[in-house]
Amino acid sequence: MRLTRYFLPVLRENPAEAQIVSHRLMLRAGMIKQNAAGIYSWLPLGFKVLRKLENIVHEEQVRAGHIPMLMPTLQSADLWRESGRYDAYGPEMLRIRDRQDRDMLYGPTNEEMITDIFRSHVGSYKDLPLTLYHIQWKFRDEMRPRFGVMRGREFFMKDGYNFDLTKEDALHAYNRHLVSYLRTYERMGLQAIPMRADSGPIGGDDTHEFLVLAETGESEVFYDSAVTDLTFGDREIDYDSVEQCAAIMEEFTTKYARTDETHDPALFDQIPEARRRTARGIEVGQIFYFGTKYSDAMGATVQGPDGKPTPVHMGSHGIGVSRLVGAIIEASHDDKGIIWPEGVTPYHCGIVNLKQGDAEADAACDALYQSLTALGLEPLYDDRDERAGGKFATMDLIGLPWRITVGPRGLKNGVVELTSRRTGDSQELPPEEAVKKIAEIYGDMHSSEHVQMMGTRSFHTYI
Ligand SMILES: Nc1ncnc2c1ncn2[C@@H]1O[C@H](COP(=O)(O)OP(=O)(O)OP(=O)(O)O)[C@@H](O)[C@H]1O
Ligand SMILES: [Mg+2]
């Protein structure tokens, strides 16, 4: 993309309404525009990041054996009356009446709808296990929408639902989700710590929230500092293996890590004092096992091996995809702007032309642009007729992890400058070397992991 042809409405001034850094930077970098309280348009740069996160979520869900589908945003109230949640959900649910006077609602979540789909089509235990998920807009009429996309009213969420014959099978599904979520957040450059949590209106006993530590987080959290040493890394996992998933569950959830809702001071005090931490965190996901709560209420049974109708064991599992855009920025920025982790960056690198209109500089930039594009990389070329300071400020604000700077002086010596956004370190090298370096940073061209990182294989491939 060339900046002269793009739509990147950056703001020079700090918007007064933004209280936290991610909200401020998303507005300043031209990623979002508010339409009403807690409701945003995703402008091109923000949309690109949102799609990258969505893609990672899809890839990791499909890898875990979960099946993508799509349910509507608008739902009929009837199903919610069956589960008893139409009245229980309260004023957070946006209720709508259609022209036939039928009660509708903008879905805050989809347990009822998926249970209805399941009971309509699945009749035998032989069709289990089954996990279906979708990534769709939700609406919750939050009392205090704030912090930009972090607590919106309309927000984008992945929600998945497992259907199993037994509690043991459903707990395996729970563990499988935990593993897939660990992978998902790490690919986004985040550490999200699973913490024992409270189940709220979804119901059930077993639940963990995933929290990204950040001063601006809305949740108070208590943990053993040893949990922050745990990383999933690039280990291979067989998602069908009950033992492997259970072992990872145990590894990541045995050390003390809880939100204020489940915090137990007596247990906390048993951790060596030097490792006790109290901090704040952003909830970026949650997994639940809730047994037969919905299948009992809505008659979702299968014929068991003994021929008798058996209510299925279920769980639901959510990732806050739009909130994650803000959470990543909270975790990765400096005073100049955003610093995107390589796995989610909207463009792989920036190209800054220090002397637009200079025949040699223009030609060198065009050549770089073409070489990078030919390798499947997406550069953002600042080809505006602007002074260098303004171009650098824009690049720093929008946070591409790598920048190639091209000017007549360097070109005389056959070099361009490659700069890391994170460290600020620069090196001079021939243009071909800069391209090679960037290709290396984004991985080995032939590995499938690389193709995923490049974002050239979109989730559509999987569906
Ligand atoms: N208002 C919101 N704006 C943006 N993301 C949200 C919002 N509410 C929930 N999410 C995201 O969706 C994920 C799954 O939804 P869940 O039902 O667990 O939310 P929740 O526990 O009600 O969230 P919270 O406690 O923050 O209100 C959450 O972990 C969070 O990342
Ligand atoms: Mg939650």
From TrEMBL:
Report the locations given in the UniProt record: Cytoplasm
Q: Which GO terms describe its molecular function?
A: ATP binding; proline-tRNA ligase activity
Per UniProt, the keywords (alphabetical) are: Aminoacyl-tRNA synthetase, ATP-binding, Cytoplasm, Ligase, Nucleotide-binding, Protein biosynthesis
- Annotated GO CC locations: cytosol
What's its catalytic activity?
A: tRNA(Pro) + L-proline + ATP = L-prolyl-tRNA(Pro) + AMP + diphosphate
**Which top class of enzyme applies to this chain?**
ligase
Q: What is its EC number?
A: 6.1.1.15
Give start and end of each Aminoacyl-transfer RNA synthetases class-II family profile domain. Answer: 38-341
Q: Which SUPFAM superfamilies match?
A: Class II aaRS ABD-related, Class II aaRS and biotin synthetases
Q: Pfam families annotated for this entry?
A: HGTP_anticodon (PF03129), tRNA-synt_2b (PF00587)
> One biological-process term from Gene Ontology?
prolyl-tRNA aminoacylation
What job does the chain carry out? Catalyzes the attachment of proline to tRNA(Pro) in a two-step reaction: proline is first activated by ATP to form Pro-AMP and then transferred to the acceptor end of tRNA(Pro).
Subunit details: Homodimer.
Per the record, the similarity remark reads: Belongs to the class-II aminoacyl-tRNA synthetase family. ProS type 2 subfamily.
Return the protein name: Proline--tRNA ligase
Originating species: Roseobacter cerasinus
Instruction: Recall the taxonomic lineage recorded for the source organism.
Output: Bacteria, Pseudomonadati, Pseudomonadota, Alphaproteobacteria, Rhodobacterales
